[in-house]
Automatic annotation (TrEMBL):
Its cofactor is FAD. This is Ferredoxin reductase. It comes from Catenulispora pinistramenti. Keywords: 2Fe-2S, Iron, Iron-sulfur, Metal-binding. Residues 14-115 form the FAD-binding FR-type domain.
């Protein structure tokens, strides 16, 4: 059977590249942002991810997928990695990497769970835990381009110290409304008891169905399915809901 030709653009995205770690930031006690210089990077859309491959000295190799946190037109690529205590890859990325270390990656990957600057409809972002990462890329892309598209973010975390990008999300940003939810512990004098997201919480941030907003939900599988169901119950058209989920991977 003849093998189908791979287009030049797709071939570039599938090619493994060597990236150099040029900086890193602590986001939470369990999460770190890796700043990478990737020669020949073809560019990406807000919401896409990369495949990252690690190879041991004995030849053993493993790979994981990580969402891109940075806006598309930056000179460097940023990935935010949350440590999984019994994971195989994330503890190394979050704790052991040093500036100058090399990593293999390919991408960008994904074309459905993305935000494009030409979208003029209102946007709702719903994040559970580290599901904030690709949504943060959307927020940064909007800010960087200076567009006026209205954004709302509902961000659910266990405790205040689990919030990634906390300072950035609390900084003034016209057109961006941010709501934090806490499921285990709340800040002092917080008006809401700790609990999972409720229909009331969602109704407070969801755009009216008549506005045909696009809704992006990212987080653990159970969270994503529950949040999507809430939006449907509130009248959001299912075809206006885009989801990205993750589950146990050993990572």
């Amino acid at each position: 059977m003849a093998r189908a030709a791979v287009s030049g653009r797709l071939g570039e995205r599938l090619r493994w590249r060597v990236a150099t770690l040029v900086g890193q930031r602590v986001e939470t006690p369990a999460a770190r942002t890796l700043v990478l210089d990737v020669p020949g990077w073809p560019g990406h859309l807000a919401g896409q991810h990369v495949d990252l491959r690690l190879t041991a000295a004995d030849g053993y190799s493993t790979q994981r997928s990580y969402s891109i946190a940075s806006a598309p037109d930056g000179a460097l690529l940023e990935l935010t990695v949350q440590r999984v205590s019994d994971g195989e890859v994330s503890p190394y990325l979050a704790d052991d990497l040093l500036d100058g270390d090399l990593l293999e990656l390919r991408g960008p990957v994904g074309g459905w769970f993305v935000w494009r600057p030409e979208q003029s409809e209102p946007i709702l972002l719903v994040a559970g835990g580290s599901g904030i990462v690709p949504l943060m890329a959307m927020i940064r892309a909007r800010r960087q381009l200076g567009v006026t598209t209205p954004f709302r973010l509902l961000y659910s975390v266990r405790t205040p110290e689990d919030r990634m990008y906390a300072d950035e999300l609390q900084a003034p940003d016209p057109g961006l409304e941010v709501t934090f939810l806490y499921t285990r512990q709340v800040p002092e004098d917080w008006p809401r008891f700790p609990s999972r997201i409720t229909e009331r919480d969602m109704a407070a941030v969801a755009w009216p169905p008549s506005m045909l907003a696009t809704n992006y939900i990212c987080g653990p599988t159970a969270f994503v399915e529950y949040a999507a169901d809430l939006l449907v119950e509130l009248g959001q058209p299912p075809d206006r809901i885009r989801t990205e989920r993750f589950g146990p991977t050993g990572d």
